[in-house]
Design a protein that fits this description.
- With 82 residues, this protein is mainly alpha-helical.
- The protein has one domain.
- Helix content is 57%, strand content 0%.
- It contains four helices and no strands.
- The longest helix is centred in the C-terminal third of the chain and has 23 residues, at 59-81.
- The protein starts with 8 loop residues before the first helix and ends with a helix.
Length: 82
């Protein structure tokens, strides 16, 4: 016979918050790790950046837009983690 232990939702939430406070990471230390961005390349693939809609833009402009979008994604991710 299997027995299921019912845990109140508030207790599950409290455990989740407690665990999240233990995990403290820093984007510069844990992700970037002293590396530099190569601004001669795109930060996101064309499909993810939806570059097909920017047919009027030059290659340099598309690269710049990709870099803007990549930084925006990174900042949004960072805000979500905080």
């Amino acid at each position: 016979m299997d027995t299921a232990i019912q845990v109140p939702a508030a207790a599950r939430y409290a455990r989740c918050i407690e665990a999240s406070k233990k995990v403290r990471w820093d984007i510069d230390r844990d992700v970037i790790r002293g590396r530099k961005f190569d601004f001669t390349k795109k930060f996101l693939p064309d499909r993810l950046a939806q570059m097909a809609g920017f047919g009027f833009a030059s290659a340099g402009e598309k690269r710049f837009l990709s870099q803007i979008q990549g930084r925006t994604f990174a900042n949004m991710f960072g805000l979500g983690e905080r």
